[in-house]
């Protein structure tokens, strides 16, 4: 009888804990009215996904030995010059694990530099894209002509599905969000980039649910979101949209398809930010996408600012082993010296940003 009672109490406590976590997701989610009022206080959001040209991945960006504030300052100056006001920047839990206080100081230093240039930041927590085996320490050199040859998932695989890792990840997520929870230099928390990518699909759902819960428990002053990126991931997409304050999404398609996506997502009645677009050889260009996003008052964050070690001027699936410059760049706007890849694109960006 005593054993049965213990089991019953344990089950009750577990169910109560699950109910409380569900309640915090509902209780702390922003209403559509609050989200739209927040959005109305900002001028049109435009910018890029940013990593300095001297970093191959998030770890090289944030680790003490390779953190490069001089390059960050210079390249965010290029962004300021064309009127960009927002950067989307990836963090990494291993950089935090290696040096918790130092990592937070470097994030603060980055935010100071960005703020100097009139730029707010979308901070990305987890990521299911590219290499599944991140390691602390010196990062490998880029593979010539290969798109994102050193980019690292966070926390990686199978780490992302191993629930034994969740307590340590919870500490990381809550510490980072609490540290900057009332910091107006942070525009938005993007909790998980492309959950389910690299064939993980719904294996990423438990961590996705946890990171939303952890963020809601902190309840930062900034909105939280996870972007829709693959339409046939029904279970993931439903959870992401249901629990996001602001609807964010990725779209690298031509304008006809992108417009259909916009029309669908507008039905949620919440602000929209496209946190990834612009792949020239797929006909997702500044010339045909950026004016459409502004017309619909949708935040526009393209992939890539400066051509560098990430090699994102090369397309995802068409490496150039010689490392020669492609006939047409896939992503990115500037060369390292600040020269635009295409002056007409820069002129358009400046015009739409009233620069």
TrEMBL record:
Q: Which residues cross the membrane?
A: none
UniProt domain Glycoside hydrolase family: residue ranges: 82-305
Endpoints of the signal sequence: 1-19
Which residue stretches belong to region Disordered?
136-157
Which Pfam families has this protein been placed in? Cellulase
Q: Which UniProt keywords apply?
A: Glycosidase, Hydrolase, Signal
Q: Name the InterPro entries on file.
A: GH (IPR017853), Glyco_hydro_5 (IPR001547)
Q: Which family does it belong to?
A: Belongs to the glycosyl hydrolase 5 (cellulase A) family.
UniProt name for this protein: Cellulase family glycosylhydrolase
Q: Which organism is it from?
A: Galbibacter pacificus
